[in-house]
Design a protein that fits this description.
Layout lengths: L1 E5 L7 E5 L3 E8 L6 E9 L4 H11 L8 E4 L5 E3 L3
Antiparallel strand pairs: 1-2, 1-6, 3-4, 4-5
InterPro entries: BURP, BURP_dom
Organism: Paspalum notatum var. saurae
Protein name: BURP domain-containing protein
């Protein structure tokens, strides 16, 4: 699977990388009015400390011991085999 994230340039530039993350389609619902939205979340089971270090620190767990999940921004793309 390849994930591509939009970069902050005045024209379309994407940073793409391969990943072994597990992907899930989830439905998010607003607490106030019940508005729903579909989103993709990626869960990294073997995430190294790197950019996830603040997450591990907040959760109080050692790097690589639990999956780290995050939502993909609207401008991201995923390429995978069917």
């Amino acid at each position: 699977m390849v994930a591509c994230h939009r970069m902050p340039y005045p024209y379309a530039v994407f940073s793409c990388h391969t990943t072994t993350a597990a992907l899930y389609a989830v439905t998010l619902a607003g607490a106030e009015d019940g508005t729903k939205a579909e989103a993709m979340t990626a869960c990294h089971k073997d995430a190294s400390p790197g950019i996830f270090w603040p997450t591990y620190k907040k959760l109080g767990v050692a790097p690589g011991t639990v999956p780290v999940c995050h939502f993909l921004p609207q401008d991201s793309m995923l390429w995978m085999r069917k």
